[in-house]
Design brief:
CATH architecture of the largest domain: 3-Layer(aba) Sandwich
Distance between the termini: 33 Å
CATH topology of the largest domain: Rossmann fold
Structural class: alpha/beta
CATH class of the largest domain: Alpha Beta
Strand content: 15-25%
Number of helices: 14
CATH superfamily of the largest domain: CoaB-like
Bound molecules: cytidine-5'-triphosphate
Radius of gyration: 24 Å
Strand order of the largest sheet: 10-9-6-11-14-15-16-17-18
Largest sheet: 9 strands, mixed
Number of strands: 18
């Protein structure tokens, strides 16, 4: 806990973690003790509060805390703490503990809007993100002194949920460092259905909600990737923790946003439902009913996934989606055929296919069922599950590619039952 008015909320975070079964060792900076009495936390927590490198019962408290922690959460994290951590400066027990740990770290910033938006803080945050630190972004709301803006500590519920997610994302054997298999990699995820204007009022769109793309983006970020979502659903979905969102509307916007960033991306997931055709010319003025039914001439858009497939660099993992309608009695066979065709025509590594006509699957549902098909014969069946669980299966398949892109997964069929 650092010194900030939001420290009172960290007491609630502590309580929720204890209620969830965690063993909590509180560490407070000197500043934090100005806002909350250490007694408040020690009465709640599993261990006495530590505030100093020098007045601790054990000789080297930071190494013991750092080595024994399964996770460290800093809430609230001040601009000073974020700067010191990014620069590797250990000037007190908290910063020393952060440098002395290999456990996942969750940083929850809280500060005034001007400070949160200062380039120094932004760059330090980007540095921490690149190193795999999990960030619980501050919210917009009332700040100390009555100002309103972004910088308010996220809610204790959100922070506790992120802590639990990070802990449960840990692979069973712990071999890859707390589920952070994608640290150092950059990912782009597209999400939502594009809108192609007919006139200033009307557009050609589709039923994609963007939820599956957002779930994949959140999962990639949880596994340590630096993630950018390029989305036509930015206005309707909450921004996933630690993910940058670029809002777009048309297929052309999305093409420009993706292709200008794809060179630097290690992973590109085209989850968006991109229009295949757009009106050749959008009317500048609203079309009036009295003028009769308009004739709308369509022209093809660029196939972004195919363009990525044609220009991709070695090692880049390219994932496409296929929203299909299959014959009920031949659903898997149809899906597999469509997915294999798209895999070849787009030059992707993986195609995530779903039968959008099946119950609970695809557009606007919170659940999905997919068949993940890989370029070397890989087949993974993910039965009906939440979009988050499907995202975890997709990211697992991506990780297998990034870890060893040349791995011969030849003609091996994996019929996964992983639904959670
Ligand atoms: N896609 C794309 N650019 C487009 C159209 C689609 O990048 N202009 C991507 C989607 O994001 C998705 C995949 O391609 O990953 C879907 O393939 P697509 O050709 O759109 O499938 P359908 O339009 O359904 O093709 P078909 O009608 O041939 O089934």
């Amino acid at each position: 806990m650092c010194g900030g008015i939001a420290a009172y909320k960290a007491v609630d975070v502590c309580r929720r973690l204890i209620d969830a079964g965690a063993f909590v060792s509180p560490v407070m900076t000197r500043g934090a003790t100005r806002f909350i009495g250490p007694l408040t936390l020690s009465a709640l927590a599993s261990e006495p509060v530590r505030t100093s490198l020098w007045e601790s019962p054990e000789p080297i408290p930071h190494t013991r805390l750092g080595q024994s922690a399964d996770l460290i959460v800093v809430a609230p994290a001040t601009a000073r703490l974020i700067g010191a951590y990014a620069a590797g400066i250990s000037s007190d027990l908290l910063t020393a503990t952060l440098l002395a740990t290999r456990a996942p770290v969750v940083v929850c910033p809280a500060m005034h809007t001007e400070m949160w938006e200062h380039p120094a803080v932004s760059e330090n945050i980007a540095t921490l993100r690149r190193r795999g630190v999990h960030l619980v972004e501050p919210e917009t709301g009332r700040l100390a002194g009555g100002d309103v803006g972004s910088g308010r500590l996220a809610s204790p519920d959100t922070i506790a949920a992120v802590v639990i997610d990070v802990l449960s994302g840990r692979p069973a054997d712990g071999a890859t460092g707390a589920g952070q298999q994608l640290v150092g990699l950059a990912a782009i995820v597209t999400a939502g259905g594009t809108r192609e204007p007919i006139d200033p009022v009307r557009f050609i769109g589709n039923r994609s909600s963007g939820k599956q793309g957002y779930a994949i983006a959140a999962e990639l970020a949880r596994r340590g990737a630096v993630v950018t979502v390029i989305s036509s659903a930015a206005a309707s979905l909450p921004r996933p923790v630690g993910v940058d969102v670029v809002a777009v509307e048309t297929a052309a916007d999305m093409e420009q946003a993706v292709l200008s960033r794809s060179e630097a991306a290690d992973i590109v997931v085209m989850a968006a439902a991109v229009a295949d055709f757009r009106p050749k010319a959008a009317a500048g003025q609203k079309l009036k009913k009295v003028d009769g039914p308009p004739e709308v001439i369509l022209e093809p858009t660029t196939d972004i996934l195919a363009a990525l497939g044609a220009r991709r660099r070695p090692g880049q993992v390219l994932v496409g989606f296929a929203a299909e309608t299959a014959r009920p009695e031949r659903a898997r066979e149809d899906l597999l055929r469509y997915a294999r065709e798209k895999l070849a025509s787009k030059g992707a590594d993986l195609i995530v296919a779903n039968d959008v006509a099946a119950a609970g699957v695809g557009f606007s549902h919170d659940t999905n069922a997919v068949l993940i098909v890989g370029s070397e014969g890989l087949e993974i069946d993910v039965p009906l599950a939440t979009k988050e669980a499907v995202a975890a299966a997709v990211v697992d398949a991506i990780i297998r590619r990034t870890a060893n892109p040349a791995a011969p997964s030849t003609s091996k069929s994996v019929h996964s039952q992983e639904t959670s």
